[in-house]
Structures are given as structure tokens and as C-alpha cells.
Amino acid sequence: MAEFTTQEFYERLAGIRLRRKFLWSVFFSYIPVIWIALKIGGDGLAIGVGIFWLILASIGGVMVSFSLCPRCGNRFHMKGLSTSWGSHCVHCKLSLKERS
Ligand SMILES: [Zn+2]
Predict the structure, then answer these.
(1) Of 25, 34, 52, 95, which has the maximum CB count within 10 A?
(2) What residues does the ion ligand 1 have nearby, CB within 5 Å?
(3) CB atoms < 10 A from the CB of 95, how many?
């Protein structure tokens, strides 16, 4: 069980939301960014951008998957080897929508 002040609790919850926003923005940017890269730089630039995008998606995925729940202290999105990117902790069901 994690012990935080109320302010720390909500800051950690906001941190999880921020990491999720980063990951989703990386995912949703893929097609438009690759399209622009193809238009202005051709295949070479698109491949470079695609590799950079894969690196960002990997970083985002790790940051989200290994986020710790401020209530129970377990990984917010991981239970065993399975990962769920839902908006509730897979252990204690804490919602990301909880606000101070
Ligand atoms: Zn939890």
C-alpha cells in the first residue's frame, strides 16, 4: 500500500494521465506525420520518421505500462504480463478521472 499526501496522490494520478496523453498523441500522429514526411522528403525521410516514431511509441508504452498506482502501489496498467490501457487501475480499480 502506497502512502502519499493528498497532493502527492493527485500529482501521481496526473502523471499517469500525462504519460497516457503522450502515448495516445504518438499513436494518433503516425499517419499524418508519415504522410507529411512522404510528401516533403520521400521514402528516406518517411523511413527515418517511422523509426523515430517507433522509438517514441516504445518509450511511451513503457512509461504507461510501468506507471505505479498511487493508491495500491502496483503497476496501474499491468497485472502479471498482461497490460490494459484502461482508465482504471487493474488492481484496485482506482479511476484516472478522480480529481482533487
Ligand atoms: Zn491501484
Answers:
(1) 34
(2) 69, 71-72, 89, 91-92, 94
(3) 11
Residues 6+ apart with CB under 8 A from 97: 87
Is 98 a member of any domain? no
pLDDT confidence of 14, banded at 50, 70, 90?
very high
85 Cα: distance to centroid of ligand 1 (angstroms): 13
Q: Give a yes or no: residue 75 inside a domain.
A: yes
Establish if 10 belongs to a structural domain.
yes
pLDDT category of residue 33 using cuts at 50, 70 and 90: very high
32-37's contacts with Cβ under 8 Å and 24+ in sequence apart are none
Classify 82 as helix, strand or coil: strand
On whether residue 32 sits in a domain, the answer given is yes
